[in-house]
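User: For documentation purposes, I need each entry recorded in a consistent format: the amino acid sequence on its own, followed directly by the corresponding structure tokens. There are two entries in this batch. Please keep commentary to a minimum and don't merge the entries.

Assistant: Recorded as requested. Entry 1:
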Amino acid sequence: MFGAGLALVTTAATGLGWEAWKVSPAGPIGQAEKQKTDELHERDRRYEESTRPRIALPQTPPAVVQAVHRAVVNRSTQLCRQMSPAGQVQFAAMAKAADCDTAIPTLADQISQNSVWVQPKVPPGAVTSTGTAATVDTCGLRWFNPGSGAEMDPPGPRIGRLVMEHQDGVQGNYAKGWLITGVEPC
């Protein structure tokens, strides 16, 4: 019985304290105080947004191609963080893998010469862009023998057409650069 009475007093005191916080001798806590609190919260949110680490993105569409090839050779699943969720799904489908992270080693296992595959030549006309959208058709990438300089067969898989959108680096999780939003197979 003593414990039940104590709980009732505690609950009542807590409820009274809450009501006392909402009401001051001058009436309900004023709009000015609420506005000041809201402004402080908004300032904190903007500061947090501006200082949050963002995922680095390649700065040009051809640099996206280099980043993809480098990440696959290095088996770096960080590449998947440089893609939108839809881009990750399409990348995995292109590689015939369960997900984006699994697609990286799946593709890496298909490369016969890492040092050559990581340096494709993007032919003129492979990049099309309109404002903040671009596509790089990697189906026509070319590779050259490092010794003779002669063109050679692809030393690994062709990734396909990389569809991307430019990020302004102001909102979201990405720094300024190009985000892969889709992958269309060759």
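Entry 2:
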Amino acid sequence: MSSLGKLNLSFNNLQGKLGEQFSHWPTEAFEGNLQLCGGPLDHCSVSSQRSGLSESSVVVISAITTLTAVALLAFGLALFIKHRREFLKRVSEVNCIYSSSSSQAQRKPLFMKGTAKRDYRWDDIMEATNNLSDDFIIGSGGSGTVYRVGLKGGETVAVKKILWKDEFLLNKSFTREVKTLGRIRHRHLVKLIGYCSSKGAGCNLLIYEFMENGSSWDWLHQQPENIKKRQSLDWETRLKIGLGLAQGVEYLHHDCVPKIIHRDIKSSNILLDSNMEAHLGDFGLAKALEENYDSNTESHSWFAGSYGYIAPEYAYSLKATEKSDVYSMGIVLIELVSGKMPTDASFGVDMDMVRWVEKHMEMQGGCAREELIDPALKPLLPCEESAAYQLLEIALQCTKTTPQERPSSRQACDQLLHLYKNRMVDFDKMNNDPYS
């Protein structure tokens, strides 16, 4: 250092205390190093001496901060696990929600907090049905079994049990039905009023408005010991059921956004209230069609529908459309007039219900056509008999082999409404002039 002729350490961000060997250099040689002291510079103060310990202090502070953060993280994780266990425990018991009877908009959720008029408890349903005993079964559909449940307080509801299954598509049945029914309201569609789900029981329960008079199938095809009940299903009631069905299907196809394909229209899914008004139910197989719907995906991967009601094109396309719903509706209309099931053995091996009707409608003479009308309806008034044949004509349009030749559900509904109104006009004319 004694042989060094010039030294310039200015502005190097140096720190610490200079030794005595630097004392003969001018202060300019160390300018700009604010953390230096000693030598030609000012003597080191107490604070400067302390600042020399800043590096070790930082290490200690960093260690403390890290340990504190780890402790907080562990505490937060413990709280999360605790609340998660409590949540899963609540879910594993029962989740019951009741819907409001009012709906301000079709697209708003059906089930909303704070709208409940009452709660449907899992235990109450189990108690009322002896743990869903077979004695309380009133029907079954493509997505589950239906029970009649009389609750405390006198209320009666219909409860559909849907089991959880391993198959991916069937697992979606409960969610799909709740979402579909939750956003639609129509006088001819069965109303879903709530639901319960239990992981412990491995099933879901859909709670419906109860229909006092069962299904159209019950009235048309019940056993002989109940023939008195069957005879009360007169022509006007059957025509009204057909019109109600068409109005419900029209709503699904034309007034819902996105439109809804029912996929399983049949007489056992047409439920009747105390006024014998038709309500279309069992939406477990319903499929909402989006505008960007990909016909090569889900609709091709699973089978839906009931034998005898399925449109012929579904056998090779596996694609449900509005026109396949219209076909199924046409089969039900024939069922209402004829009183026969779609798979009736009297049709023969090489003939189905549609061809059977076509054959008799083509025949000349009243006797052949009369075979198309349910004997339980006879005798019909002339205006009623004429309306019955007109209803069969509409049904044949709905069941055309080519889907494009079938009317839309709206067109079919308009024809049925016109037929119903004209039938009433003809009936009034006959009452005013019985000899006309």
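Summary note for entry 2:
The first strand starts at residue 15 and ends at 18.
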